[in-house]
Amino acid sequence: MEIIHVSAECYPVAKAGGLGDVVGALPKYQNRLGHVAKVVMPKYKVKFLDQNEFELVHESATYIGSYWFRYHILKEKTNKLGFDLYLIGIDGLTDRELIYGYDDDSERFLAFQIACLHWINQWAHVPDVVHCHDHHTGLIPFMMKYSYGLSKISGVRTVFTIHNGQYQGWMGWDKKYLLPDYDNWKGGLLEWNHMINPLASAVKCSDVVTTVSPSYMEELRHQANGLEKLFEYERGKCLGILNGIDNEYWDPRSDAMLNTNYDAKSFKLGKAANKAAICKTFGFNEEYPLFIFIGRLVGEKAAEILPESINRAIWEHDGKISILVLGSGDSNLERRLTDMKETYKGIYNCYIGYNESLAHNLYAAADFLLMPSRVEPCGLNQMYALRYGTIPMVRNTGGLKDTVIDIGTADFKGYGIVFNNPTVEDLVIAINRAVGWYGNNNDILEAVIPRIMAIDNSWERSAKKYIDIYK
Which residues neighbour 229 within 8 Å (Cβ) at sequence distance 6 or greater? Predict the structure, then answer.
């Protein structure tokens, strides 16, 4: 079976969040199951392009509206990612340093989608499945079925995966002219709430809709940024499949980024060594429990509750804890978190930005991971934490609900700390629980850690479920 994944992100080429991690791993595991999975994404101006070898496999031109544009397709030569990677280059549109955040993002990603389909439509054969990811590729199912120039691939099955339903790619109808000519009787399949809505269109037009966890699929029927009725209506073709993680890349036994490698048997010494290195770097006391937050500093992650929660937790525990934040996002929040470093030297610190190596070392060093998310379609950080023997502290939502069981339930067979609300009060209570476990029940934590490191959250299971859907 030949599967074409179309996405705006793919790690390690270009990544802004979990979407990149998924598209960088799922195709590799599908190939290992004996299928042919490929990834098509925009050619951004990124380091990966300069550091790897590519070959030109196609050049052509087509229209976006009345504008005639040329595009080219580059293929990564060595198959180093475990799948064929194709980059679509469109001068002036895809050749940017950032993935998102430009005023013409609608035009950029629409041109990318048009070029992708224009290219596939010229193949000597047709693929079995086109698997689209998030709203940046959401118009592909509609165009494949109803655009006049794509009749060759109109019968190819489509799967659409929602990684975050809050972002939908809205466009005014004044941009309708940018789409390839299509059957006007089908124009309603583009629309939601008087706008062109790529995510809504994909839900209507794709053969199967998936989300990245079962609980998130249910939540979208009640909280989907205006699309609740659509998800209720289309529920017959919607299902949630929990994301996996790449157990080869995220493996404390062999992770080349770590200060010290370890496994479930040597975790005590291994985590202690990594914690000592992090504490030395950031000026912490390694005797105290180390809490980390890794993620985007945005409302979806409830990041705005971090400053007050950190203040309260430090005060309640007389400074005998360590807290480190790694992330970027809202500039005001970045400034607040940075300013707090002077107030709480030796207790709190932050790194504004993203550093892949530091993230790996934090998972290996930390005792607890903070995830107070308002919205978490799946969440991968909690799975990375489990893999590295760090206790996740999560809000009871989305994929966090599906992957973390409270440590105090089922005769202590759980492996995390779960709370219900993305508030300062709930997060501080959770931190208090964690400090109590760390100080008074260390033997229980030491029994929990090897068990959580053995949990199988790998992609093998999820990849098989997707293959079943394609079939």
Answer: none
Number of other CB atoms surrounding residue 170 within 10 Å: 17
pLDDT digits over 137-162, tens only? 999 999 999 999 999 999 999 999 99
CA separation for the pair 161, 206 (Å, rounded): 10
Angle between helices 306-316 and 331-343 (to 10 degrees): 20
Residue 2: partners with Cβ closer than 8 Å, 6 or more residues away: 35, 36, 37, 38, 127, 128, 129
Does the domain at 267-455 match CATH 3.40.50.2000? Answer given as yes
| pLDDT tens-digit map of 383-392 | 999 999 999 9
Residue holding tokens 């709430």? Answer: 193
CATH number (2.40.240.10, 3.40.1280.10, 3.40.50.2000, 3.40.50.11690) of 2-246+460-470 reads 3.40.50.2000
Write the burial class of residue 204 (CB in 10 Å: 0-12 exposed, 13-18 middle, 19+ buried): buried
Nearest to 344 by CA among 321, 327, 364: 321
DSSP type of residue 78: S
Report long-range pairs for 19-22 (Cβ below 8 Å, ≥24 apart).
19/133, 19/134, 19/163, 19/164, 21/243, 21/245, 21/246, 21/380, 22/133, 22/161, 22/163, 22/212, 22/243
Pair of tokens at residue 285: 């006391």
pTM over 0.85: yes
Whether 77 has a binding-site annotation, put simply, is: no
